[in-house]
Amino acid sequence: MLPCLPLLLLVTLAASNVMKSPEDLESEMFPPVNPNCTQRLTDYILLRQEIQLSKMAAAEEARTQLMRENLQVLTQVRDTLSQVSETLTQRSQVNGKSLVETRRTCDPPFSPVGDSCLLLNLALKSDWASARQFCVGKGADLARFSDAAGYAAILDYINKINSENDSIDVWLGGTDEALEGTWLWVTGELMPRGPPFWGSTDSYKAAPDGGTSQNCAGLYKRDNYYMHDLRCNGAAAPLCQKL
To answer: How far is Cα 149 from Cα 197, in angstroms, rounded to an integer?
Structure first.
């Protein structure tokens, strides 16, 4: 009989569990939560929500401030543009002339070209130093430019003056005589390099390419008036400029 006792005990325990109601089983599996734990969880959730709301409010305030600053800047830009437009309108009405016509006046024999006055003397062919002296005697200096627009304006002017399309090179106010390879305008400013300013030899070797024997800049007629380094003692026409 003794070997049957463990089996009997297991059957008795199982029977006792079967006799329990579902509510009793649930209470044993999920004991009630401590009220303090529930309160702490609620406080934690509320705190997280409060933090999130604070961050959202701060972000919204920052966006609002940024929009105010942008509006202020745009208002200033609008007012500035209005003042500039009014000034340009007033200038354009001076003596019934347009703004372009009144922007620059040049005494003959100089002609207005862009923001400067130019004089090209095709009848004078001299070396670079003599050409510069000629310009200085006219209260000017050999011409220079800083960008493609200025270069294009000079080319347009030269082609109009040289209507006969004579094969005449034109001196500019640029040289690398002080330091080989460092091309400077007569004002001491660096000259622009590369295209579309400098030309090439036989459409192959890019100028400047003459080394120490060619230290003065000119517009080379046989290369459609692209810039080239030329011999300073060569003959070319002076292009004088008043700024």
So the answer is: 11
CA distances from 172 to 127, 143, 209 (A): 11, 5, 17
Alpha-carbon dihedral of residues 180, 186, 191, 196, nearest 10 degrees?
Answer: -110
pTM for the full model? 0.58
Sequence ranges of the domains in the chain: 32-99, 104-242
| 104-242: CATH topology | Mannose-Binding Protein A; Chain A (3.10.100)
Is the distance from CB of 239 to CB of 158 less than 8 angstroms? yes
For residue 44, count other CB atoms closer than 10 A to its CB. 10
* Closest by CA position to 239, among listed 149, 116, 147: 116
Tens digits of residue pLDDT in 165-210: 999 999 999 999 999 999 999 999 999 998 889 998 766 778 898 8
Q: Is the pLDDT of residue 60 over 80?
A: no
Q: Is 43 helix (H, G, I), strand (E, B) or coil?
A: helix
